[in-house]
Write a structure and sequence with these properties.
The complex is a heterodimer. Chain A is 60% helix and 0% strand. Chain A has helices at residues 5-17, 39-53, 59-64, 68-84. In chain A, helix 1 crosses helix 2 and helix 1 (5-17) crosses helix 4 (68-84). Chain A is globular. The two termini of chain A are 14 Å apart. Chain B is built from five helices and eleven strands, in the order E-H-H-E-E-E-E-E-H-H-E-E-E-E-E-H. Chain B is of the alpha+beta class. In chain B, a hairpin with a 5-residue loop joins strand 2 (62-65) and strand 3 (71-74). In chain B, the strands form three sheets. Chain B has a five-stranded antiparallel sheet, with helices on one face. Chain B has a four-stranded mixed sheet with strand order 4-5-1-11, with helices on one face. Chain B has a two-stranded antiparallel sheet with strand order 2-3. Chain B has helices spanning 22-29, 33-54, 122-129, 137-153, 216-221; strands spanning 3-9, 62-65, 71-74, 82-89, 92-99, 110-116, 164-166, 171-174, 182-191, 194-200, 207-212. In chain B, helix 1 packs antiparallel against helix 2 (33-54). The chains are: A mainly alpha, B alpha+beta.
Chain lengths: 85, 222
């Protein structure tokens, strides 16, 4: 599991939301309140992270993810499952 | 049955928060700057849509978020139940509303989505909805907009985007597992650089009003 998973997720979000590297993203930030966030851009970010990390997230889990930390936890769980299988 | 949709192009202009009701301004202040601007623009489009649907707006009107974040109309008058949906993208806001009546209480279910014309792409649509056949960003965006509008019209516990099918030029069918099928109608209009879709459970063609930002205050107060 990548040690810097949180940073990978933040960078994926920054890329798809068009944010600069200086934009601080916190684990408690709500995904839909991030600057430039909308449903298409967030789905693009999820799609990018799935490709980069080689995981597939469940649509229901994605819908229920409220914060950046929730998204990181989802990916962490998916990575753990894929490593175990 | 009447469905009203309002679109407003703001461009870089800041939407005037002074036109909101006090509880709305209070809710807006809790949001980060970027979101606050969109939120205010959406509320103002919603006020115009409600004005065009229901007549002069009472001072008691407030459009506040439910726990899910969906907008709920308060203070419109005893016994009136109006469904409202709000959408925004860079430079634009949109709102759609419809009123339930005693014969058709579900008729107020309405959804609206506005997107920049090339906002989506085939790969993102395929990931979200499982449709591999769309080839251009423009087509993907129109499909996404129809799905999002239908999703919002299924308020409460809407099916996943993957559960929707575009079954005709204006029909969307949602078939969530272990729940009854829902059928909606969608109307997508092209705006300069954007698309807007209204979804409704009724067959009523939405009355689309594209209002200039500078004229919005007049419409709301009329």
């Amino acid at each position: 599991m990548p040690e810097n998973l949180f940073e990978i997720v933040c960078n994926g979000l920054r890329t798809e939301l068009g944010l600069g590297a200086e934009e601080i993203i916190d684990a408690t930030d709500q995904l839909d309140l991030l600057t430039n966030a909308d449903s298409v851009r967030l789905m693009r970010a999820v799609s990018r992270l799935e490709r980069v990390l080689g995981v597939e997230l469940d649509d229901w889990d994605i819908r229920n993810a409220q914060t950046v930390g929730d998204l990181v936890a989802l990916i962490e769980a998916a990575l753990a499952v894929s490593k175990a299988s | 049955m009447t469905v009203v949709t309002v679109t407003v192009f703001w461009g870089p202009a800041d939407p005037p928060a002074a036109l909101l009701a006090a509880p709305e301004r209070h809710a807006a202040r809790e949001l980060p700057g970027y979101r606050r601007r969109h939120w205010t623009a959406g509320r103002l489009a919603a006020r115009a849509a409600l004005r065009l649907l229901t007549g002069p707006l009472p001072d008691s009107l407030a459009i506040l978020p439910a726990e899910t974040g969906a907008p709920v109309v308060h203070g419109l008058g005893e016994g009136r139940r109006v469904g409202l949906s709000i959408s925004h993208c860079d430079g634009w806001s949109a709102a759609a509303c419809a009123e339930a009546d005693s014969h058709w209480p579900d008729a107020a279910a309405v959804g609206v989505d506005i997107e920049l014309a090339q906002a989506c792409d085939p790969a993102t649509l395929a990931r979200a909805a499982g449709w591999p056949r769309v080839r251009s960003s423009a087509e993907a965006t129109r499909c996404w907009s129809r799905l999002e509008a239908a999703y919002k019209a299924c308020a409460g516990d809407p099916p996943l985007l993957r559960d929707y099918r575009l079954t005709g030029a204006r029909q969307v069918s949602a078939t969530p597992r272990e729940r009854p099928e829902r059928r909606l109608r969608t109307w997508t209009e092209t705006l300069p650089g954007a698309v807007v879709t209204t979804a409704s459970v009724t067959d009523a063609v939405p009355r689309l009003h594209s209002i200039d930002a500078s004229a919005l205050a007049q419409v709301i107060a009329s």
